[in-house]
Amino acid sequence: MRHLLDTRTLDRETALRILDVAEDMSDTQSREVKKLPTLRGKTVVNLFFEDSTRTRISFEAAAKRLSADVINFAAKGSSVSKGESLKDTAQTLQAMGADAVVIRHHSSGAPQTLATSGWISAGVVNAGDGTHEHPTQALLDAFTIRKRRFGADSRGRDLRGIRVVIVGDVLHSRVARSNVWLLTTLGAEVTLVAPPTLVPQNVSLWPVRVVYDLDRALAEGPDAVMMLRIQLERMSAAYFPTEREYSRRWGLDARRVSGLPDGSIVMHPGPMNRGLEISSEAADSPRSTVLEQVTNGVSIRMAVLYLLLAGERDDERGGDQ
To answer: Within a 10 A sphere around the Cβ of 112, how many other Cβ atoms?
Structure first.
């Protein structure tokens, strides 16, 4: 694996390999000593043009647990905010000897540009670009669904027959896009639920079903319900009448959770707007996988960095295990 830029072009075999290597990484994280020597001598740069404490810390933890050196580069307060271009920044990282660059950028396509421009020889991981994609979030979501469904016996399994409902601000959500492509590649059936104003115009080209009534979608008994954050910071128009009305029609509350079938799980990529798209009762219920998703995110990102920087060199899957 040279880069991880999206899930739309990720084939089933590669996706399953990442999930299976993440299982191995997860096993090592229950040890007293969590650190592996696998990427000793490698340098991973977290290049974040947008704020994201959770994702950046997750990638930093993943790299450090593989013994890589980590450089955190925040665009705010750097020469980038004074007008330095992506090309100049990339060439600086190349001169520093970066082996992998984890990039989050407000412009859709920036990671692709970085990976294909020839400015840098490092492997590139997309940590979220505009409203385009967020591939490691989708991978950790798929990993979480698979682990909850199959437990310790999940290696090599795809998600055929699993029904996933994704609810909320699909229009602005790179998490939704990445999940749609990955989950369907792995065999899951995906239903989108949102107000008509928050459904992308080109959704007819996606391999999904679109429903506008949340109660109708939940009555079909999904295996997983994924709530999306309402991205108020990306909204320049009134996409729904009031927050209270949105919560009433499309929010996940205790009543809706209680009606889900046994074994059905509640997911959220975080950070959550409690009381808007999800109630505290739903977020903190035994069905909720929110904290598991955070834990699993480290394992997935360890797997991605491993496959980017060491996977082609050997197949030890995480070093001394």
So the answer is: 17
CA–CA dist 72, 47 (Å, integer): 7
How many residues are recorded in the chain?
Answer: 321
pLDDT above 90 coverage of the chain, percent: 83
Residues 6+ apart with CB under 8 A from 178: 6, 7, 133, 134, 135, 137, 138
User: How would residue 237 be classed by pLDDT, with cut points 50, 70 and 90?
Assistant: low
Give the residue-averaged pLDDT of 288-308: 97
What is the overall mean pLDDT for the chain?
A: 92
Of the candidates 189, 187, 272, 273, the one whose C-alpha atom is nearest the C-alpha of residue 224 is 189
Give the pLDDT of residue 213.
Answer: 97
Please check the confidence at residue 319 and state whether its pLDDT lies above 50.
no
CA 80/CA 26 separation, integer angstroms: 36
Domains of the chain: 12-133+294-309 (3.40.50.1370), 135-289 (3.40.50.1370)
Q: Is the pLDDT of residue 313 over 90?
A: no
One-letter amino acid at 202 equals N
Angle made by CA atoms 168, 228, 4, in degrees to the nearest 5:
125
| d(C-alpha 185, C-alpha 107), whole Å | 26
* CB 76 within 8 Å of CB 56: no
The pLDDT of residue 74 is 81
> Is 148 within 8 Å of 174 (Cβ atoms)?
no
Which of 267, 229, 265, 234 has the alpha carbon at shortest distance from 250? 229
Report how far residue 262's alpha carbon sits from residue 279's, in angstroms, rounded to the nearest whole number: 20
CA distance 312 to 264: 37
Cα 271 to Cα 137: distance, rounded to the nearest angstrom: 13
